[in-house]
Amino acid sequence: MSGAQGQFCAPYRVLPPKKAPVGSMNTWLSHLNRLSPVRPWMGAITPLSLRSDLIAGLTNATIVLPQGVAFAIIAGLPPQYGLFTAMIGTFVAAIWGASSVMVSGPTTAISAVVFATVSEFATPGSSDYVSLVLLLTLMVGLLQLTAGLIGLGSLISFISHSVIVAFTAAAAFLIAVSQLGPAVGLENGQGGAIHRLVAIWENLDGINPTAAAISVVTLACLIGVNAIDKRIPAYVVALVVGSLMGVIIGTDAAGVRTFAALTSAFPTFSPPEVSFDSVGLLLPSAVAVAFVGLLEAISIGKSFAIRRDESHDANQEIVGQGMSNTIGSFFQCYAGSGSFTRSGLNASSGAVSPLSAIFAAVSLALLLLLVAPLLQFVPVPAMAAIILYVAWKLINFAEIRHILRSSRSETLILLVTFVTGLVSELDFAILAGVVVSLSVFLNKSAHPIVSVGAPTDVNGRRVFMNAAAHNLPQCPQISNTRLDGPLFFGSVEHVGQAFKRLEQGFGPRTRILNLKGVGKIDLAGADFLLNELGRARRHGRNLYLIAANPQVLNVLKRFGIMARLSDKNLHNHKSTAIEAAVLAADDDICAGCELRVFHECTKKAKPPDLKTGSGDQAGLQSAP
């Protein structure tokens, strides 16, 4: 083989080693290796890292104590279930997870979804409700574990970040509304946000001033301590202040409710009660909770991996979350995920490895020995105030403003998810957001950018830019067209229409089609290229392809496109393609062209100067 095709295709004849088939023994062994409790980080522990992780773990235990109680209440569960999850769930996820500093356990968003979905089938706090929640946790864990073992981690990145931003905001709003009543001494009503707000409005005369005062003082203390120094365990301090205020005033005499003492400070082995009817009832909710948990965990894990310049294995993280929820369901834990608040505290406290999260779980267990009996002195309004603060901090106002200002498609995803979460169910909001997100993705994929480039000088450098956007002159014979995006069955129609629009009023003799921005070509895309090649030849025109990606070259070869190209029609760089196109351009047209768009045009005859008769053609005619 000679010419361009031989020159640029030869390096790609050596194929990489074949990967083992998906169903092969080696592949399954590599997947099952993710289940091993012996993780790489365990061999890197040093006395210095051990000390740093211990300090970070102790710090984390202080913040998760009130949070665990608050999140359990949000989920409609007795307080101890949040603490069980903060112990067992955190411990297991630290061993099998992929992040060095992420701390898993109970989270606000998942607690809200659990409450919104399971409360439809049982009364929150009842034994039936607890049984359904534990079964839901087992189902979530198995779904996540399966997803991690078959390698679905990369699919999570296809879901827009706006989905989780809007979903979290909707969950925060619902959480806040659910705690307004308890914060002022009213009963926690039933139904959605609108029903609860209406119930509070209709019962304003029943507000307990003492309860309202306790919640205001607790909230003010929490905000004030956070403003002074974020290293102070503000949740603990605020809860202590609110509890002391309740003791001084006298909660019983003032009609202010307090929490019941913990029935148990430590979880016990208790397998979930499984029935086919309950599984069918909870399956949609389990999918939603599993999905939300994975979005949270992977987003947090990737975020801290980038900050710390570490690698992140999304599939291993999914396995870690699946193991956490699966094992946790047997020890009275409800579904959890990664916590950005506790992970951020862990990182800022000097955590080095997942051992810090393990220390946090163990420290919480020891701490409960001391404080478990004190829960009966905590007023409900004090905890409601803390949950209101958590809900407020859950909304990412800066990110919402950024989305609203920067992208109409992301704004659509944001609004659909948020509004659906308010007027419908939270799990359905996730589904709606995902559907819109995927629709936007498919729409963008079906409309790749088709543009004509022309050279210009930028800061003394010769670069190619969009000719139409920058009003640059184009060669009358050569169209330097670039395609950015996939060329597949969903986009060929759009690309074909774009080609026709570019040809209106301008029929170039030669088209250079740059495929460097194309990452995917399927059978329909290959047929489109073959049709364009045939159309060009029928009209006496040339078509040059620029391709350097080995995968794209392999597709061109597999679908027979290379066999239809001559040696000079395939290039791996635009300079060689332009050089070949200019060389094949009509000399008579070049002689009369004053644009000289490309550097390569200097190799063609220049137009004669009508006054002096000078020029390449004149010189050639006068030569002996």
Automatic annotation (TrEMBL):
Domain of life according to the entry: Bacteria
Q: Which residues cross the membrane?
A: 54-74, 129-152, 164-186, 206-228, 235-259, 279-298, 352-375, 381-400, 412-442
Domain STAS intervals: 482-581
Membrane topology value: Multi-pass membrane protein
Kindly give the CDD domains that the UniProt entry links to this protein: STAS_SulP_like_sulfate_transporter
Gene3D superfamilies named in the record:
STAS domain (3.30.750.24)
Q: Name one Pfam family in it.
A: STAS
> What keywords appear on the UniProt entry?
Membrane, Transmembrane, Transmembrane helix
Intracellular or extracellular location(s): Membrane
> Known PANTHER family for this protein?
SULFATE TRANSPORTER
- This one is known as SulP family inorganic anion transporter
Lineage of the organism: Bacteria, Pseudomonadati, Pseudomonadota, Alphaproteobacteria, Rhodobacterales
